[in-house]
């Protein structure tokens, strides 16, 4: 009931039906302004016969509106194409290769589509049109998914569906590109492995982009998959400079919302045009932050699940991924490569970052000016352009701040600005690096570096630490470095206030966003009895 507290009728649960039909009288403050002479315990009467519950009375969605809503929820579905030809027969003939409607698709965990073959199960996530300059057999349709086979031997085909054509065009799958190294583990049949599947668009159709693709074992099979072919181009034909991709967020019970605001605003200051994140399970406050930036067009959030029989129960997802670390790493390759292929035509560089990492320029102020310095340096050492440019990892750990105290002139909630003591030692070259990837040259991506590239091997240029490094904000070292963490990193710290160059705009932007989102409640104040700030000299 509009304007009424739930408590107004809490006592009614013990009443009899006869009493519920009588006047419900509650002693409480009236819902409207009263005169000074009014009693603070004025009695407000409610007659159930005169009340109207507030419910959603919005008109029902038309099928067209409902389809548009579904398209936004499941980006890999060819909803618009299906709507356009709904009721029409699209097929090779009456018994061969019928267009699968959305009702014929074998869905798995909402965002995946399943193909059962005579030798393995395929869970498919996305399809992409690839005619980049360095693609040898272009144009190619690439399908991203997971297969429970090593070196799949089953022959499969793409049914390509073009707008204006009543029948599909068949193309043989010519490559199963493995997005993993067997030395990393989980290398056995029966476990789902990440693959990039490729089929070439046949002659006579290479000037066209398919609307959707179905993967089948035999060309005439009735397909159980139908993926929209993604071909995202910049609206004005001009690429933006930098995009950031973030793997599936798994923070259901960790409210990292304030830190997320600081991290996003830092990336925007450095030159990120847009940040693409995948949502496995997050805290409601994180959702609030992401929705805010999504409305501004600075962030794009894609919902994500784990394929197959892996758990998708809230909370259990986190426990599973924490326990099954290798499975976690393999699952992460799907959003990373989906993000690459969605944005390969729209950006000059793509960086894969976690929400506790920042590629920090040191000899310049922005990523753009950094790359204007780095690329000529790379060409001096080798004339060929690089597929990626990597920065070395250095730890800014929580305990390093506690040793030196808070900086009173900086708000407590500015995590990165408060943490300016780091390890003196970098992790070894090539270990735990992050990169700016050239999307025109990389074929498949891993968290730290390209796994395969177009036009030959993957070449990566190591950016000098005088120009930039990866500031990694953690509570502790990664598991593989635990034995040497104290001796190599924790016990050898130095002050690094590079980030303070952005202090004024960063504090202003973060504070403004937190105010807008209601993170500050009336009466909140600074924490009492702060330890004195260390005597530091800004660099």
Automatic annotation (TrEMBL):
Glycosyltransferase: present as a keyword of the record?
Answer: yes
Q: Where is the composition biased (Polar residues)?
A: 35-46
Which EC number(s) are documented for this chain? 2.4.1.-
Localization of this protein: Membrane
Q: What Gene Ontology molecular function terms does this protein carry?
A: glycosyltransferase activity
What UniProt keywords are attached to this protein's entry?
Glycosyltransferase, Membrane, Transferase, Transmembrane, Transmembrane helix
Which family does the record claim for this protein? Belongs to the glycosyltransferase 92 family.
- Any idea what this protein is called? Glycosyltransferase family 92 protein
Q: Which organism is it from?
A: Penaeus vannamei
């Amino acid at each position: 009931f509009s304007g009424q507290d739930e408590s107004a009728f809490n006592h009614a649960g013990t009443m009899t039906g006869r009493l519920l039909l009588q006047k419900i009288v509650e002693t409480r403050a009236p819902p409207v302004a009263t005169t000074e002479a009014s009693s603070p315990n004025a009695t407000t009467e409610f007659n159930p016969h005169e009340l109207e519950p507030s419910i959603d009375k919005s008109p029902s969605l038309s099928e067209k509106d409902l389809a548009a809503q579904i398209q936004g929820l499941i980006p890999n579905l060819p909803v618009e194409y299906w709507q356009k030809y709904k009721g029409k027969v699209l097929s090779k003939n009456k018994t061969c290769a019928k267009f699968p409607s959305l009702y014929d698709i074998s869905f798995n965990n909402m965002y995946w589509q399943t193909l059962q073959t005579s030798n393995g199960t395929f869970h498919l996530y996305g399809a992409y049109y690839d005619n980049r300059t360095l693609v040898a057999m272009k144009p190619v349709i690439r399908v991203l998914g997971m297969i429970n086979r090593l070196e799949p031997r089953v022959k499969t085909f793409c049914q390509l569906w073009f707008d204006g054509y009543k029948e599909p065009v068949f193309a043989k799958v010519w490559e199963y590109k493995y997005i993993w190294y067997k030395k990393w583990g989980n290398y056995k049949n029966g476990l789902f492995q990440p693959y990039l599947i490729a089929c070439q668009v046949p002659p006579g159709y290479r000037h066209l982009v398919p609307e959707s693709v179905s993967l089948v074992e035999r060309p005439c099979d009735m397909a159980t998959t139908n993926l929209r072919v993604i071909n995202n181009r910049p609206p004005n034909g001009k690429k933006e400079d930098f995009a950031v991709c973030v793997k599936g967020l798994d923070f259901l019970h960790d409210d990292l919302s304030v830190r997320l605001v600081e991290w996003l605003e830092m990336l925007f200051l450095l030159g990120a045009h847009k940040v693409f994140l995948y949502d496995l399970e997050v805290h409601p406050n994180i959702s609030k932050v992401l929705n805010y930036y999504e409305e501004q067009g600075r962030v794009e959030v894609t919902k994500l699940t784990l394929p197959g029989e892996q758990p998708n129960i809230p909370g259990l997802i986190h426990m599973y991924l924490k326990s099954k670390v290798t499975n976690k790493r393999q699952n992460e390759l799907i959003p990373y490569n989906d993000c690459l292929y969605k944005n390969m035509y729209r950006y000059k560089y793509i960086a894969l970052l976690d929400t506790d990492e920042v590629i920090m320029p040191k000899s310049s102020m922005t990523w753009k000016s950094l790359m204007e310095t780095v690329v000529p340096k790379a060409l001096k050492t080798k004339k060929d352009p690089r597929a990626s440019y990597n920065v070395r990892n250095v730890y800014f750990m929580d305990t390093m701040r506690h040793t030196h105290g808070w900086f009173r002139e900086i708000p407590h909630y500015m995590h990165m600005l408060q943490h300016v003591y780091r390890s003196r030692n970098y992790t070894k070259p090539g270990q735990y690096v992050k990169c700016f990837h050239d999307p025109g040259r990389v074929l498949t991506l891993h968290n730290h570096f390209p796994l395969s590239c177009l036009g030959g091997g993957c070449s990566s240029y190591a950016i000098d630490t005088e120009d930039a490094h990866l500031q990694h904000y953690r509570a502790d070292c990664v598991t593989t470095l635990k034995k040497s963490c104290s001796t190599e990193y924790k016990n050898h710290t130095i002050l690094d206030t590079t980030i303070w160059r952005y202090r004024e705009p960063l504090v202003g932007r973060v504070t403004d966003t937190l105010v807008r989102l209601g993170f500050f409640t009336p009466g909140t104040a600074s924490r009492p009895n702060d330890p004195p700030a260390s005597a530091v000299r800004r660099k």
